[in-house]
Amino acid sequence: MAEYEAVIGLETHIQLNTLAKIFCTCKADSWNDLPNTNICPVCTGLPGVLPVLNEKVVEKAVLLAAAIHAEIQPISYFDRKNYFYPDLPKGYQISQYDMPLAKGGYLDLPIPSNNDPQGKGYIRHVNIHKLHIEEDAGKTKKEGGRRFVDFNRCGVPLVEMVTEPDLRTADEASQYLIRLRQLLRWLGISESDMEKGNLRCDANVSIRPKGSQELNVKTEIKNVNSIDAVRDAIKKEIARQIREVEKGNRIKAWTLNWDDNAGVLRKMRSKETEADYRYFREPDLLPLEISNDWREEILKDLPELPLERRQRFIRQYDLPQYDADILTGDRALSEYFEDAARDYQGATKSISNWLINDVMRILKELEISANELKLTPKYLVQLLTLVDEGKINISTGKNLLQKVQESGKSPLELVQEQGLSAVTDDAAIRKVCEQVLAQSPDEVASYKDGKVTLIGWFVGQVMKRMRGKADPKLTKDILEELLIK
User: Fold this and answer.
1) Do residues 390 and 430 both lie within one domain?
2) Separation between Cα atoms, residue 76 and residue 288, nearest integer Å
3) Do the Cβ atoms of 93 and 85 come closer than 8 Å?
4) Could you tell me the pTM of the whole model?
5) 439 and 395 in one domain?
6) Distance CA 446, CA 15 (A)
7) Same domain, 406 and 433
8) What Cα–Cα distance (Å) separates residue 17 from each residue in 29, 107, 170, 184, 425?
9) From first to last of its 485 residues, what are the pLDDT tens digits of the chain?
10) Looking at 418, 436, 463, which one is the last position of a domain?
11) Number of domains in the chain
């Protein structure tokens, strides 16, 4: 059997988080609205109305284009993409075709090694064919054997990004979506929630013998609403195409629908070509001009990008790649880390450990962002300093995190109020250690017979009696001293 490789290109539709729709003043975020309540004559295409372009849409799209290193066009045009579907009230969609907002660009994807998740893996360089802005269509819903149409989403602003066929596996495709979603949230231009339709993906898939440079007939997978589903659907389509080719059959240019519940692909229709859409210039909109002054005004808000910050964290703070990956997965978390690192006198790896192991658990439980924490970077630094100086032990410090978040009070204030200072007095700890050993003859005998792991149990008993205030290192040292007598 011949060896095959997949050739994959992705088309992503990104809903921008503007307040208004792209060509009218209707609210753009209509996720929770009743059907057909957030519409007007413009977004439903009634006769005699004229579209007016929302500048915020252009600004967010330009920001994304710069972040993917695309060539922003000084002049671009809007076009009509003509097709009939029940959720498209005008019978056409205002989009961009041959002269889009941006051309080219790329995303580099760090792909971890399958054998070693913390290894370097490899970088997949994915070229972007073009980036353009357009309006969204409505959506249909099947219920009780009937199909209903909701026009609320008509006119919601979208950016469409089309990659070159540079991806080779389903896992690479899922990594592309993960990195794209990270970038969109980092820039603050989209919520990128696939379940809500903020980020939608169509995958074009073909196969060829390994080593071949030929591009064969591709199929298109549509209606995929999660990153896991994109990966699963692509894997199944690759396997199907290989089976067909091995049987001597030709791959046909189908459009396939992914049924997430059943986990299967079903044929929708033969794939359309660009000629089917009969593009022509949108007569009701002027060319879109991006002046140098406007471009500079937009790009002054372009932040340091995730992969750049990731590499800087590894270099500047001597962090492992694993830590840097997690800390730069979210912009607010990376800024929290850097604010804390700026003031902390100890090793920055310690901040990273506390953030990854403890603070992120609080974020997940409360479903908030790092910049919403009452446990500010200043308070975290104060807490770590108290631990470093031996004024509280690690166990007390971990409990303090939650107390600081709940109260908004500083760690120092809570330590003083609640008497949480660590007990470092040798005599006080020794007395409790002697009591624990005297009351645990069986465990002492087992320890002396070679079961040295019991030292952790003895430390725990002392900590329990001293309400977690005993210095754990001093406690362990005293116990070991007493146990060898």
Assistant:
1) no
2) 5
3) no
4) 0.84
5) no
6) 65
7) no
8) 7, 22, 28, 10, 58
9) 569 999 999 999 999 999 999 999 999 988 889 999 999 999 999 999 999 999 999 999 999 999 999 999 999 999 999 998 889 999 999 999 999 999 999 999 988 776 454 556 889 999 999 999 999 999 988 888 899 999 999 999 999 999 999 999 999 999 999 999 999 999 999 999 988 889 999 999 999 999 899 999 999 998 788 999 999 999 999 999 999 999 999 999 989 988 888 888 988 866 666 678 899 999 999 999 999 999 999 999 899 999 999 999 999 999 999 999 999 999 999 999 999 999 999 999 999 999 999 999 999 999 999 999 999 999 999 999 998 887 888 888 998 999 999 999 999 899 888 777 666 667 878 888 889 899 998 888 898 888 888 888 988 888 888 877 777 778 888 888 888 87
10) 418
11) 3
392: three-class secondary structure by DSSP? coil
Which two structure tokens, joined as six digits, stand for 341? Answer: 């690192």
Residue 27 DSSP code:
B
Same-domain pairing of 237 and 381: no
- The span from the CA of 137 to the CA of 149, in Å, is 11
Q: Check which CATH number belongs to the domain holding 430 and give it.
A: 1.10.10.410
Looking at the structure, tell me whether residues 159 and 28 fall in a common domain. yes
**Whether residues 23 and 149 fall in one domain:** yes
- Residues 112, 17, single domain; the answer is yes
What lies within 8 Å, CB to CB, of 188 at 6+ separation is: 17, 331
